[in-house]
Write a structure and sequence with these properties.
CATH superfamily of the largest domain: Aldolase class I
CATH topology of the largest domain: TIM Barrel
Largest sheet: 10 strands, mixed
Shape: elongated
Helix content: 25-40%
CATH architecture of the largest domain: Alpha-Beta Barrel
Strand order of the largest sheet: 3-4-5-6-9-10-11-12-13-14
Number of helices: 13
């Protein structure tokens, strides 16, 4: 008999669950506390539920915490974790310690539909969406879970293409009955999907990061096919309708490719495009991936690009590269090889 995970359920879902089982409504908050505050791994640990209630839960449910099947450490302290998510499906997440910060980069899909030219996950193709259980499990099951200070949805997949499950995970992370994290500790990265962007902005207070990579429609479409479905110019018009000047941060991710998008004319166009917004730009060094004829810009070029943007009203930073030696850096996550090995 298939048993379903409790981990990853919101309070409203737990209330429906206990109601269907004839338990008092307050039992839902008790279960949520055991799941997300005390972080138990077995239903029998819910000692303020009666034995009858626990046995009833055990007939249909499990906690649903599953440890990573593999951990790969980098020379810089980064750790890449591999998780099994169903039969013959895997995702990766990346733990990044940095002085007093400890960030976990989580995945939202197995593979990705977006097929960005520079991303290994896109080359893998799309297999399936992750459930809120799969997402929360990445956060709760790693040994460093209690050390985490930040979560970024920048792993495998496009979060807005799996928005229902991502929003459930964000609710669990930020609700008083869940992890009770500040939304300021969480960033969701997206290529910008028309159907999901407006809804995400209005239903979540978490930070938003948009992958832009080119200020021109034609070049961006060559790098990112998603541009054809939702042009960056239209996206900017939508973003102008919201206030990002207070607690919530809006940022743009810009991977710099040698001889492609790294010259000052591109910086000028980017500054012009983003000037109406209260935002920042994160410049990212490209990490070479197999069968892609792109190279990363050198540091001097990136520094000049950053300085131009900042001096023209768009604050910019160069993101430090982490975990490249274990294929854990930006755009390098892929589990195709792991799946092949597992199936052999």
């Amino acid at each position: 008999m298939v048993k379903y995970p409790l981990l990853g359920k919101t309070l409203s879902e737990l209330e429906e669950l206990v109601k269907s089982m004839g338990m008092p409504k307050f039992t839902a908050k008790q279960i949520a506390s055991w799941l997300y505050v005390k972080k138990i791994t077995d239903i029998d640990e819910m000692t303020n539920l009666s034995l009858k209630q626990r046995n009833a839960l055990k007939e249909e449910f499990v906690i649903g915490v599953s440890k990573p099947v593999e951990a790969m450490p980098s020379v810089d302290g980064t750790i890449k974790y591999l998780f099994a998510v169903g039969e013959d499906a895997f995702v990766e997440s990346v733990y990044i310690p940095d002085n007093d910060r400890a960030t976990l980069c989580v995945s939202s899909q197995v593979g990705c539909k977006m097929n960005c030219k520079f991303c290994m996950t896109g080359k893998q193709g799309f297999t399936k969406n992750l459930s809120s259980n799969d997402i929360i499990n990445q956060i709760q099951s790693i040994p460093e879970s209690d050390k985490l200070t930040n979560i970024v949805f920048m792993g495998m997949g496009e979060p807005l293409d799996n928005l229902d499950e991502v929003l459930k995970a964000l609710e669990i992370l930020t609700a008083s009955w869940g992890y009770a994290w500040s939304p300021k500790r969480i960033t969701v990265s997206t290529v910008g999907l028309r159907k999901g962007l407006k809804r995400f902005i209005e239903e979540s207070d978490c930070h938003l990061a948009i992958s832009i990579h080119a200020p021109h429609k034609q070049l961006r479409a060559e790098l990112m096919p998603a541009e054809k479905g939702y042009p960056i110019a239209e996206m900017i018009e939508l973003l102008e309708q919201y206030d990002f000047s207070k607690q919530r941060r809006l940022s743009f991710e810009y991977i710099m490719f040698k001889g492609v998008n790294d010259t000052l004319p591109y910086a000028k166009e980017l500054a012009k495009l983003l000037r109406p917004l209260d935002c920042r730009v994160n410049l990212i060094r490209f990490h070479a991936i197999p069968d892609v004829d792109l190279e990363g810009a050198d540091m001097e070029t990136m520094t000049n690009f950053r300085d131009y943007l900042t001096s023209h009203g768009v604050f910019s930073t160069i993101r430090a590269s982490r975990g490249e030696d274990i294929f854990a850096a930006c755009g390098m996550l892929s589990t195709a090889k792991n799946q092949e090995n597992n199936n052999n």
